[in-house]
From TrEMBL:
Protein name: Rhamnogalacturonan lyase domain-containing protein
Transmembrane stretches, start-end: none
InterPro entries the UniProt entry points to: Carb-bd-like_fold, Gal_mutarotase_sf_dom, GH-type_carb-bd, Polysacch_Lyase_4, RG-lyase_II, Rhamnogal_lyase
Residue ranges occupied by any Rhamnogalacturonan lyase domain in the UniProt entry: 361-434
């Protein structure tokens, strides 16, 4: 297979880097690292050609200066723009390129106190590409607060109309023009728009709101869009959630009208200020966000369009099985040989319910640096590693990056958060035996009356129908009701 790898000037007099195998062709603006083009399946560009090159595929950060006196210092959205381009690896099997911006405190203005290295990887014979970013705080950086970071893909608005984020949550979406005043009516709830004169008349009367398509981290391993003429699937796949803030139950945005496809790594949504990452002056830090895999598939016939979603789900399983990847070139990304594991058994002691120990069946257990029970829900500086126990309460947390952790957890059917008292030191190649662990849920006495089931969902509660004039038809007969 012949690689295509070149650098050229674009129409806008900016340097471009072209990465292509026989399936996919990527165009990246140099040295900024903005993804300007994706050619695949007979479509010259899957990204929105009506948007500037800087607004098609990019990373951004929301940040602020603690105690800033000027309004713009409290919440700055910064689109990451590299200043140095480099080829990290180039062989028959793959190519990996870097677009790096390095923090420089000199000069005028307030600058994001982070050095960020954006990477793209294209492999031989692979229908898609991997991307990740390395965030670093060099020694001596000033204090700042990080409230959100993500990667955004804006797709061809005239092509991509159908989104899928789960087996049940799939639909034809509005056009971006439908959100404008002459076609949509903004409601009191921010970013909610009633479609009064949409381009697609079938959507008239519905309410569009990007927050309706949020998913828990643990449930959002793949989401994306399907285009028409040609039928192409564009999918963002998370092979792991270890680098995402807030643990398995943190909700994040996935897709929204645009059409936009998001890879959310850290954000305040649904939690608020407690989720903000605070960095002190001089605090060193680095973290690898990703890699994620952008998977592309296609079919020639409209009757097989749903198969693109089914195929994307299968690809997600393949990516998860391959984690941690063995082809990442950065020293900051820890491969399998450099990781360790921890295993044990969790049981519940509830004398008011049963005289003997109860296996913690289907419990969530995870390693996090958070030191307080439940603190993993707002922990964002480091990595988290979560699994579910089997029917006997046994668990094995594999591929853990070396570090000092606490073991956290919760058990369906019991209230409260479990926290193991001791610290757990994970080293490269270690297999840490934690033994039998006992969770004693908080109680003041026998249960006199209860409602619902303590499993951290609202599935046991009645959710009434919304007013029909403010409905999203996707959810009228939802299985979550």
């Amino acid at each position: 297979m012949k690689w295509v790898f070149e650098e050229q000037f674009s129409f806008f007099s900016c340097m471009q880097v072209i990465l292509a195998n026989s399936i996919v062709k990527l165009t990246v603006v140099k040295p900024q690292g903005w993804l300007a083009g994706i050619k695949y399946g007979g479509m010259d560009n899957l990204l929105d050609i009506k948007s500037p090159e800087s607004h098609r595929g990019y990373w951004d950060v929301n940040w602020s200066v603690p105690g800033g006196l000027e309004p713009h210092q409290f919440n700055v959205r910064c689109r990451i723009s590299g200043t140095k381009y480099n080829v990290i690896h180039h062989s028959y099997d793959k190519i990996e390129v870097s677009f790096r911006t390095t923090y420089n405190p000199s000069g005028l203005g307030i600058k994001l106190p982070l050095s960020i290295d954006i990477r793209y990887i294209l492999q031989n014979g692979v229908s898609g590409f991997h991307c990740y970013a390395i965030y670093e705080r060099p020694t001596g950086c000033p204090a700042f607060d990080l409230s959100q970071t993500r990667m955004v893909f804006k797709l061809r608005r005239e092509k991509f109309h159908y989104m899928a984020i789960s087996d049940e949550k799939q639909r034809i979406m509005p056009m971006p023009e439908d959100l404008l005043p002459h076609r949509g009516k903004r409601l009191i709830v921010p970013e909610s728009v009633m479609l009064v004169n949409p381009i697609n008349p079938d959507l008239k009367g519905e309410v569009d709101d990007k927050y309706q398509y949020s998913m828990d981290n643990q449930e959002s391993g793949v989401h994306g869009w399907i285009s028409s003429e040609p039928l192409i699937g564009f999918w963002v796949i998370f092979p792991s959630h270890e680098f995402r803030s807030g643990g398995p139950t943190k909700q994040n945005l996935t897709v929204h009208t645009g059409p936009a496809c998001l890879a959310m790594f850290h954000g305040m949504h649904y939690i608020g200020d407690e989720m903000v990452t605070h960095f002190e002056a001089g605090e060193d830090w680095n973290k690898v966000f990703g890699p994620i895999f952008v998977y592309l598939n296609s079919t020639p016939t409209i009757s097989n369009a749903h198969s693109l979603w089914l195929d994307a789900k299968k690809q997600r399983l393949l990516e998860e099985a391959a984690w941690p990847y063995d082809f990442i070139s950065s020293k900051h990304y820890i491969r399998a040989a450099g990781r360790g594991s921890a295993y044990g058994k969790l049981v519940v002691q509830d004398k008011f319910l049963h005289g003997s120990l109860i296996p913690a069946k289907s419990a969530h257990v995870g390693l996090s640096v958070a030191k307080k029970a439940g603190g993993w829900q707002t922990e964002s500086k480091h990595y988290q590693f979560w699994v579910k126990t089997d029917s006997n309460g046994n668990f094995n947390i594999k591929n853990v990056i070396p570090g000092i952790y606490r073991l956290h957890g919760w058990v369906p059917g019991f209230i409260g958060d479990y926290l193991e008292k001791g610290f757990i030191d994970i080293t490269a190649g270690s297999e840490t035996q934690l033994g039998d662990l006992v969770y004693v849920p908080p109680r003041d006495g026998p249960t006199m009356w209860d409602i619902g089931f303590p499993d951290r969902t609202a599935s046991g509660y009645y959710v009434p129908d919304v007013s029909p004039i403010y409905a999203n038809r996707l959810f009228l007969n939802s299985q979550e009701k």
